[in-house]
Each structure stands twice: as structure tokens, then as C-alpha cells.
Amino acid sequence: MTRQNIGRPVRASSFVGRRQETAEVKRLVAAHRLVSLTGTGGVGKTRLVLHAVPRLARAFADGAHIVQLAGVRDASLVPLALIEALNIRDVSGRSPVRVLVDHLQDRESLLVLDNCEHLADACARLVETLLAETAAVRVLATSRHPLDVTSQHVLEVQPLATPTPGEPLPPKPALEYPALALFADRAAAVLPGFSLTTANQDAVAALCRRLDGLPLAIELAAVRMRALGVQQLLERLDRRYRLLGDGVGGADSEDTLPRHRTLRAAVDWSHDLCTREEQTVWARASVFAGSFDLGAAEEVCAGPGLDRDELVDAVAGLVDKSLLVRDGDAVHARYRMLESIRQYGLDRLREDGAGAESAARRRVRDWCLDFVEECEERWFGPDQPELVRRLHAESDLIRSAFEFCLNTPGELRAGLKLAGHLWFFWFATGALVEGRYWLERLLAAAPEPTVARARALWALALMLLSQGNAGRAAPLVEEARDLALRLDDEAEVAHTFFGRGGACLISGDYERARAVYEEALALPPRQGESMSLVGFKYVELAHVLAIQGEYDRAMALCEEFRQICLTHGEQWIHSYLLRILAFAEWAKGDQVAAGVHARECLRLKRAVGDVFGTGMTLELLAAVHARDGEGRPAAVLLGAAKRIWQDAHVALDRTPSHGPVRTEAEDAARALLGDGFKNAYREGLDLTSDHAVAYALGERESAPRPLLDSPLTRRETEVAELIAEGLTNQQIADRLVVALRTAEGHVERILSKLGFTSRSQVAVWAESRRAGRP
Q1: Inter-helix orientation angle 714-724/759-771, to 10°
Q2: Which of 74, 188, 453, 495 is deepest in the core (most CB within 10 A)?
Q3: In which element (H, E) is residue 112 found?
Q4: What does the longest C-alpha to C-alpha distance in the chain come to?
Q5: What's the rounded Cα separation, in Å, for the pair 744 and 732?
Q6: What backbone phi and psi angles, to 5 degrees, belong to 390?
């Protein structure tokens, strides 16, 4: 099954021209493992690659993944940006680069690294590692300059074609010259009914030539058609160029190269035509990394000389002038700047004085801190799925706030506080690699004994416990407790109980874990204590009791806190309670109740994106099916859970109550299915986490399967089916957008694995297996 992941929504305006370049990108990606699209700012590299990727994605069994790097400023964050784009939830504790290499080892994926120029060295190092240590990963990069990687193939993206001066225009010039077609398309968007005519086409051609065919410059000029005619546009642009030409520097300056001057003139002119309020927002919003919403813009951009009502109008004006791009959907509007526009705004901001940029970045930090604190306060309630969505959307902005705190004197405590308040997000969504990255850096840089440090210590301990590292987590959580006691902060002392008991539980010291949780629940919640962590005390004490066979008391504890969750509309802790409840019911022999609660648990875990909890619950539900004599669904769910563990590199014996569940389920399913177990298990391995949950809940009858009883990989299965269609090796290569030698290699491996000597045997085999699918 081919899966596509083409990143976040991007600019919705139509794509004009570039048909030949799109075909060339497809050809190059098929023939080379690393392709770099280079070219000057504003030439349309990102637009071209985003147009090409959906057409490329179907050729990769594991999809295409866009990594937008414009908002990443610290080179060390490049691997983390890839991990997030690939939705990797790894608990192994390895380095981010090793996590990426192992995750991509056997995958056929296209990685699209967009806007690499400011991170060229880091991108080059990572790409070299990935290409050397994986078999089928390909990379498509955009950058103003080629990456320093010897194996790359470079395609320089040229400006759009424009007519030669004095050359007669053809009858339909827009068909021959993409620059003219782009101008006409964008002008019609602001002046309905506009089209190229014999009366205006010469002026449009001259204008596009003056703009050197640069798409961004053409778009910015076309916006002015709301107020000016084409000839007026051309005359004013000529004056602007003469003024700019009078003030340029030496010929060796990059900014004096013709196309850079062209773009600078177009952007400069757009800036001059903005209102004072729009110019202010443009400059201040240039510090945003990635996209932002209106709430963030109000906090960061409003202030002296610009109130919030004026800001809303200014944002709308910048969108109308194509200086801000509106992303998101009808409900969740977000905005971003193209990199050339952002850099211009940053230059303008710096003109306001040495402290202007720092002050704006500090406002971003303050907004992030307020936003994250609000999310934590609202977390124990009905808004968890929406909060997860918003926190993912703000990831670039939050990372930029961390970078600011680490690199600006006097800001470490604020950074530590920000990290401490994000524990629930990293923990709930399995983003442990990123959580550890920031917590470890900030704790190392800020050793002062503060409440923020105490919280960050136990938060790091939770990340480590989730990765099975009780040895390192235990002293951290004790240090957090000692520091909180010394600072007389009762809430932070209470927060350490979960980690202290968890370290004992993972280490197999059930009596000690039970004692810690009994002590914790004997104390009333403290002012400021997280209700989620209160809930985890119930979860883990019930867990220990169930392990020790005290099922009734375990179920009573689950039901007690479940009522609190239901009252508040809470889902995350509720899902953990349901899993422990289902486990205790399964252990007691009540398969009906266990099945009901396990499925309810899965629905909640899907809502909040708890991947690891999903894996454990799938295995529990497999055990329920197995006891009911339903071997096939048990085997499918075991395979689906196995895929989650493989992707996350989870040690399967990490949860003490978990091993016996899996073992019984697998033994029973094997006994029920015999030789059929392997095929059903393989079906589960082919399921994504979302598809596995849908299968478990009865929302789909069967897993999407490759050929039955097939020893082939997913890509080999696809090639076998194309052979059955009668395609030659070259036609297969063209269909899958791969090199001929790659297609030939697939065919050779298929023949070898199946023990065949001819393509006709493969065709018959594939057709018979296809006919046998349910």
C-alpha cells in the first residue's frame, strides 16, 4: 500500500507553467538518490517541488515527506525536524540521527528538504549519512546553492520564460511564455475579468522582462493591478529600478546580481506601497519561525504605534498584497512569509535599532510561555485533541523560543520553565526524543536551584522512564524531590511521586512501587498540582494491584478516578484507566467487559495520539479475541502492535503486566490458526496505527493486504502485479518513477524468492493470489 505524507497545507493559488521542469524533477528523482533544486530567491523552487511531490509520492511505498526548514535556525534541530515530519515515536533513547537511520533502514521513502541554504552543512551531513546507511531512501532538496554532497544531481531552477525584446508575440502568448501566463492569472485574481489582449500583451511582456521572469516579483507586481494599469505598473517599476541602481554596491555583492536586484526592487516597491501599520507588522512578524496564527501576531506585533484592531487590518492587507501567505483551513487560519519576504522584513526590523529584533524574539518567547502554560492548565479536560493539534502547529515557534532562551543571556530560567510546562505534550504524544533534547540542554545550562529546575528534572525522568531507563531516571526524580522540598514547593514535591513509583515499577520492585503510590494517594492534592499526575497515581497503583492479583481493588480505583475524568471530559488519563481496567477484567476472565473497555480505550488513545498506549491496547484486545476462539483478528492485532514496537524500538518487556498478555494471545492464536497465523500476522504488520485501530474497532473488515502467502516486500508485490499487467522493465520503471536498474533488481529478486524462471510464471502467480483475496 502506497502512503503519502505531503506535509502541511501550503499556498492555495494555482500553479502556472513549469511543465517541463516538473517532468525533469520526476526523471531525476527516478535516476538519482539525491536531487537538489537550486536557484535565486523568488524563482519558485518551493512551489515547483510542492507541485511535483504529489506526483512523485505514489512511486514510494512509504510515501513522500516534506520537511520545511525555513523556520529552523539551529543546525542541530535538523534531525528533530525530520523526526517530526516522519511522525516517528521512538523510545529507544538513541541519538536523533540514529533514530532516523534505523527508522528509514528498510523503507522506500522520499524526503523533501525545503529551504536548506541556511543549514547547508547540517543538511549535507545528515543526507550523506542517510544515503550511506539506508537502501531505498531518496532526497529532494531545495536550496539557493547546491549541498556539499558528492552524489547529488543539481537542477538549477530558471526564471519563467519571457519574450525577447523586439520579438513579435505569437497569437496566444500565454501558452508560449509562462511568465505572461502567471501575471495574467494573478492579475485576474485581483481584477476579475483581466486577460491578455492585443492591447496589453506588449506591456505585460515588457513588465515580465523587467522582472527577469522571477515568479515572486511577478506576483507582487500583479497585485498592484487592483489600482494601476499595466503601463502604469511598468513606468513606476522602471523608476524604482533606476533609483535602486543608483545606490547599489560593488559588483561582487550577491545583492547586486541582476536577479537579486530585480527581486529587491519588487519587494522594496511593495514595502513602500504598504501602509505604516502593514510595514510595522511585516517587520515584527519576520521573527516568527514557520507559520503563526492571529493570536500570536497580536501578542508579538501589536504594541507602540499599533493597536490590535489596526493589526488585524494590517494582516489582511499583507495577505491581499501577497506578502503574507494564508495557510490552514476555514476554521484555523495561519500565516507565513516566504523566505525572501521574511528576510526583507528582518532587515527592516533591525533598522529600528540594535534591540528591536531581540525585543521581538522575547515577545515570541513570552507568547510561547503563556500559550504552553494555558495548554497545560486546560489539558485535564475535553480539549486534549485540539490542544495536541495546536501544539504541533506551533512546534517551529516553540523551538525558536527555546533557541532564544539558550542563546540569550539571562533567559535560561524562562527556557527551563517553558520546557517544564511541556512535559504532558511530549509524554502524551510520544515525542520523547524532542523532550529529552530540550530538557537535557537546558538543565545542563541552568544548574541554579529553582522551582523550574525541579520541574524539568522530574519531566526528564518521565521521558527516560518511557524509554525504559529507570537507572538514570531514579536519581533525577529524587533530585527533583529534594530540590522541591528545599524550596518548600508542595505541588512539585507531589509531582515527583509518579516518577518515583514508576522507577520502582519498571525495575520490578512492585512492593516499593505500591508503597510510593499508597503514600501519594493518602495525601490530598496540593494547590497547583497537575490533575493528570494525580490521575497517574491511581493508574499506577491500580497497575501494581492488578499485577499482584488484587483485581477487584484495582478495578475499584480505576472506576473511582474514571468518574472524575468523565466529569471533566478528560480522555488521556481516562484511556490509561480503561486499559488497566480491561487488563484486570481479562485476568479475571470477563472477556466481554474487557473487550468493551479495551475498545473504548482505543478510541480515546486515537483522539490524543497516544501511539504506545495504542500498541499495548491492541495486544490486550488480541488476547480477548484469542480467549474467545477468534484467532485471525488476534493475529492481525498482534502484527499491528509489532509494527508499532518496531517503529518505536520499544523493548517489549518494559511493562510488567504486558508480557503475559502478549504471550497468551500469540500462543492461542497460533494454536487456532496453525499455518494461517503467519499470513494474518503479516496483515497486521502492513497496517498503520490508524488503520489498526479502525480494524480493532470494526470500522474496516480487513487489513489492506499484499498478495496472499507472499514472501515479497510491498514494493516487490507492486512490481509483481505490474508484471501481471504485461509491463516491461522499462515501463515498470516509468510507472514507479524509478531507475531501470532498480526495476530490474526488483524483478530479479521476485524470480529468486518465488523460485521462478520466467515473467509469465510471475504473472500467473500474481493473478492467482489476487483472485484469492477476500
Answers
A1: 100
A2: 495
A3: strand 110-114
A4: 91
A5: 9
A6: -70, -40
**Are 387 and 375 spatial neighbours (Cβ–Cβ below 8 Å)?**
yes
Residue 346 near residue 287, CB atoms below 8 Å: yes
Q: How confident is the model at residue 767 (pLDDT cuts 50, 70, 90)?
A: low
**Helix, strand and coil in the chain, % to nearest 5:** 65, 5, 30
Q: Which three cell numbers stand for residue 262?
A: 530585480
C-alpha cell at 33: 538518490
Question: From CA 40, how far away is CA 520, in angstroms rounded?
Answer: 61
User: What is the distance between the alpha carbons of residues 31 and 24, in angstroms, rounded to a whole number?
Assistant: 11
pLDDT in tens, 92-120: 778 899 999 999 988 889 999 999 999 99
pLDDT digits (tens, 9 = 90+) for 584-626: 999 999 999 999 999 999 999 988 888 888 999 999 999 999 9
Give the span between the Cα atoms of 678 and 708, in whole angstroms.
10
Helix (H, G, I), strand (E, B) or coil at 709: coil
Residue 37's pLDDT band (cuts 50, 70, 90): very high
3-state secondary structure of 688: coil
- List the grid coordinates of 31: 535516476
From CA 71, how far away is CA 7, in angstroms rounded?
14
Pairing of strands 110-114, 34-38: unpaired
For 51, other C-beta atoms within 10 Å of its C-beta total: 19
8 A C-beta contact, residue 614 and residue 644: yes
Q: Report d(CA 139, CA 319) in Å as an integer.
A: 32
Q: pTM for the whole thing?
A: 0.83
Q: Which of 710, 706, 717, 708 is nearest to 747 (CA)?
A: 717
